[in-house]
Amino acid sequence: MGFIFGIVNLDGKTVDSKEITSLAEAVGYPGFILQTEIEGAVAAGYCHRPDRNPKAGIYNDEELLVVADCRIYNGDELKTRFCFDSVEEAFAKAYKRWDRLCACHINGDFAAVVVDKKKKEVFLFRDHIGTRPLVYWKSDNQLIFASHEFGLAKSGLVPVALSERKVIDSYFRYKELYSETSFSGIHKVVPGCYVICPETGCCKSEQYWEPGEIRKDKTITFEAAVAGLRKRIIAATVNRMEPGRTGMHVSGGIDSCGVASIVADNTQDKTLLTGYSWTPWIFEDEVDGVDERPFIESFTADKKVNVKYVNLKENESVEDSFIPEFETQHIELPVMKMAEADGIETLFSGWGGDEFVSLSLRGTLNHLFFSFKWGTLLKYAKAKGIKTVILKSRTDILPFLIPFGLMHVYKAGKTDWSILKLLEFSFVKRHWKQIFCHRNKNIFGYGNRTKFALNLLNLHHIPERMDSWAINAERYGFDYKYPLLDKDVLEFWFSLPVEYTYWNFQSRLLYREAMKGILTEKIRIRNEKGEALRIASSLKSIDEGRGFVKNIFGSLTPEDHLPFFKPESFGKILDMPFSKKNLLKSISNWQKEMSYLRYVMLVRKYMKNNCTSE
Predict the structure, then answer these.
(1) Is the dihedral of CA 449, 453, 456, 460 positive or negative?
(2) Which residue from 21, 29, 63, 16 is spatially nearest to 45, judged by alpha carbons?
(3) 3-state secondary structure of 184
(4) Domain coordinates of the chain in residue numbers?
(5) Would you say the pTM of this structure is higher than 0.70?
(6) pLDDT tens-digit map of 352-386
């Protein structure tokens, strides 16, 4: 548990104790315990809930000052290289041994800052996948860093303005500016990278984890790949287990239930375990699609683990959507509240599995075509049907063969230009290059299926969700754990021959085989992707919450509205009926409205006025 923060005066001026105290109080939640150290031009610290042991700390000697929010899973391996008594000391000694490439040798969830006193440089490190967040702001003479951007904005130490570039990126879903936060000038450290801040000059980000350069092991058999993956997933899960009460996502799918099964199999006292499902237990309306509850019940019977279902209060889901620091997955907030009430200290998730380790057959057609594996492509067509291949080729292949703009089926990169109706002309004119001179990239890429996985990684969809989960979980007193995103697991997966990821054209077969005898069999062999009740419940919440949202929107004063949006346009969206016949448009309109209101709340909470400047 814990957040980190710090101030480095690059001109050598002693840090004002009032400044570091202000930063510490802004980064932590009310009641958090604060620990700080000031050593001349450097001040750093960490904070945590008083009822939880900190997983952050400070190491300081004549060469380095290291502040780290860190969990290490290959500690035994590191101890063969050097001795250490704490994770921050481990990070410091890893830096002394391997310099800026130290993070390559650590398998863990971490955000760490190393102040090299001799070189007069500062390094900000983040783990390979981005489990622990880290942000920074730099002027000519000062560097300020923290676990999250909201602490920096609230501290009063940095100028705060809403980033118009980020608003464009999020509204048009360009997904290119992950390193930028909603606040202009406050930047995120990109996962798998370190940022170097020299005494003079600009900060520079460099990548240390490059899965695209991992060599394929062409000699390994499919059976050995299954055994190797199984071994690493089990180790990744067990290494993350800690004493105390443990929660688990149990969606009924193979990823979350696979991880939960390993946790259950390695926990003797099942009363310490609680599963959590987004699926509502009671749903009166008839719902099309697969009901997840029978699968969850089979897990409960097999693993003897109690699973709790979401039971939302009226408008709870809608209210949670307004929290400006929690924009990506508000449906998880009720789970966090339940976990806190149950005294959970660790919560396991299968998040990210279907991007890599349990990757479905997405992108297989593209891979076979552009890799000239046309013989295998014919077998694929025979197995899946000619009609399926033709339909999938419209999004997987044709966009690369026909110039962009000439195909109305270019769904993977289609831009919703109706958003322009929501923006003032002066704003569009000011940012016309970013808005119009842009082409959404097709995630399948040319050829290699490995490239498809790397494209998914580079979209930063995974850390975007984990950022908000990490920030809010600290408030509720627990850590998220993601074994399927473990560094050793991913590096092994990237080393496997590509054809093993679509072996026999059976979706997720590699992972299913690895989970044989572990995962509840009814779940392991399922082929469909369900979540019908959860989706239906979300849609019902949207429909029922429209009146609540209208009241919120109507209560805004002219000063509340953002100057570069057209409030009257959002008012028209709210007046549109929620249509099940045109469901996608209704959902899109809802997302536009809620995103706008979140930005309004963000400005209201962290900025003194509505002025925005880059």
Answers:
(1) negative
(2) 21
(3) coil
(4) 3-208, 213-358+459-534, 364-443, 556-606
(5) yes
(6) 999 999 999 988 998 999 889 999 999 999 999 99
